[in-house]
C-alpha cells in the first residue's frame, strides 16, 4: 500500500465504514447517484465524447463516476486510498461485465510521478475538501493530464450559505448525508481553487454551480457557485 502522505486517516475510516453502501441508490450515497448524470453530461459537454479517451478518476470512492465514464467507452483508472471502497468498486464492475475500468490504491501524487502526462482527462469530484493539502492534489491532477487535456473538479464553497445548506441542511435537517461527512473549515472558495489550478499550469475555462430543491428532490447545474460548484480546466500545450 502507498504511504498516505496526503490523506486524513479519519476520513478514510469514515468512508471505509460506509463502503458496502456505495452502490445502494437509497443509502447515504444517494446524492452522488442523483448528481452523477449531471456531472457526466457536463464533462462530455466540455471535453466531447469519452469513447477511447484515457481517464483517471482521482478519489474515485466506490466507482460511481468511474464506471459511468467507462460505460461511455473511456479507458478509466479509478484511484483512491480507501481500500474497502476500491474493493466494492472492483466487484461492481466485475459483476456488470465492464472490463475497461481498473482500480488502484495509490495516492494521486505518487501516480503523477509514475505516469506524468498520460491521461486525456482527469476528474477529481467531491474529494479535495477531504484531504489535508488540496493544492497538492490539484498539482498532481495537472501533472497527470496531457498537454491540451482536461481536468474536472468539484467541491464545496466556504461561506455562511454553504454551512447552512451543506452541513446544517443536508447532514442534520434533511439527513441526506451522515452527520460529520463534511468539515466546514475544509471547504474551498472558488477563488482559492482557481489560484491552485493556475499555479499548477491549468487554464480555468468554465465554472458551474450545482443546486438542489429539497421539495422536488431535483438537482441542476446553474451559475450559482455559492454552495456546490464545479470547475473545468485545460492544460496548456506550450
**With helices defined by DSSP (H or I, 4 residues minimum), what is the helix count?**
8
CATH architecture type? 3-Layer(aba) Sandwich
Class by alpha and beta content: alpha/beta
Instruction: Examine the coordinates and then state which fold CATH places here, giving the name of the CATH topology.
Output: Rossmann fold
Provide the succession of SSEs. HHEHEHEHEHEHHEEE
Given as residue ranges, the uncertain stretches (5+ residues, pLDDT < 50) are: none
Give a quick account of the main beta sheet: strands, pairing sense, barrel closure: 8 strands, mixed
Question: Biggest sheet: strands side by side, in what order?
Answer: 3-2-1-4-5-8-6-7
Overall average pLDDT = 92
Q: What percent strand?
A: 25-35%
Number of domains: 1
CATH homolog superfamily: Vaccinia Virus protein VP39
The general outline is globular
Helix content: 25-40%
Write down the Rg: 16 Å
Number of strand elements: 8
CATH class: Alpha Beta
What gap, in angstroms, lies between the N and C termini?
Answer: 35 Å
